[in-house]
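FW: tagging you since you asked about this chain on Friday. Here's the raw sequence from the shared folder, copied in full. Didn't touch anything.
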Amino acid sequence: ATTKPEDTPAAAPSSSDATPAPTTSAPPAASGAPPAATSNSGGAGGNFLSASLYIGDLLPDVNEGLLYEIFNAVGPVASIRVCRDAVTRRSLGYA
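HL: got it, structure written out here
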């Protein structure tokens, strides 16, 4: 039997081809729950889309305030949360 190109189903795109969009977070909400994704507007009429950014290999002395200062210089920051050990409250090295 002969197969024509139109008889062959097209390959579905691989999900590994997708590149995640970078995102930014800011100080934790009072409830401690992660922030909901929202759109932010820049003060000068600029529109910023919401995104989540995961940062690893942080030094133990890196805290939310330092990360906020660094990332807020680039754009608006909604929230930041350094992940910490539940008992010792020491940084786990990522945010």
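FW: Residues 57 and 93 are 5 Å apart (CA to CA).
HL: agreed, and The beta strands are 40-41, 47-48.
FW: great, closing this out.
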